[in-house]
């Protein structure tokens, strides 16, 4: 007898029955509700990022700068996308000042590279 979650080689996994399907559906629905509740996106208000002095053009320049650095280091496109996702999540959560934006952005790229790029 194998422990739950372990499969013997060559043994097909059984399809769950109706009770397990409804539990899975409930779990996924709860996960979506939770994600919708906690997900934040940066909001620009009065031509600056809400609560900061970061304008859309400064944000755009920063994203393009990160894209350039990503290209120079020949990182994967997924690394760039993850770095911008991290940047957006951070800017939505923290009131960042314009003078720290490049430092924050490069830190996001480093985190993304540590996650996605292989050691060489």
Strand order of the largest sheet: 1-2
CATH topology of one domain: Cyclin A, domain 1
Distance between the termini: 42 Å
**How many DSSP helices?**
4
How would you characterize this protein structure?
This protein has helices at 18-38, 56-72, 77-93, 101-116, and strands spanning 44-45, 48-49. The protein is mainly α and 120 residues long. The chain has a domain at 44-116: Orthogonal Bundle (Cyclin A, domain 1), CATH 1.10.472.10. Strands 1-2 form a two-stranded antiparallel ribbon. It is flat and about 55 Å long. It starts with 17 loop residues before the first helix and ends with a helix.
Which features would summarize this protein structure in a list?
Cyclin A, domain 1; two-stranded antiparallel sheet; 2 strands; Cyclin_N; Cyclin N-terminal domain-containing protein; cyclin; Cyclin-like_sf
